[in-house]
Specification:
It is built from three helices and no strands. The protein has a domain at 35-69. The protein is mainly α. It is 68% helix and 0% strand. It has helices at 4-7, 18-27, 31-63. The chain is elongated.
């Protein structure tokens, strides 16, 4: 879900990474907020995966249409 090494090149110094924010909230004792943020991150990952599946399925069907009898 999180690739920290790739994120280094994608954000500025004013950007807060969500996964790091979750860890900071947990360390500060804000467990409810950390859990809520983790659920939002997980939901976003699931939504992105579903969108990717639907898009690739459509592309796959169109590119292999010539194989259908």
């Amino acid at each position: 879900m999180t690739t920290g090494s790739a994120v280094v090149f994608l954000y500025s110094t004013n950007t807060s990474i969500a996964s790091v924010a979750v860890l900071n909230m947990d360390d500060a004792g804000e467990f409810a907020q950390a859990i809520a943020m983790a659920v939002v991150i997980s939901g976003t990952c699931v939504a992105a995966r579903i969108l990717h599946f639907l898009l690739t399925r459509g592309i796959h069907r169109r590119t292999l249409a010539w194989r259908a009898p």
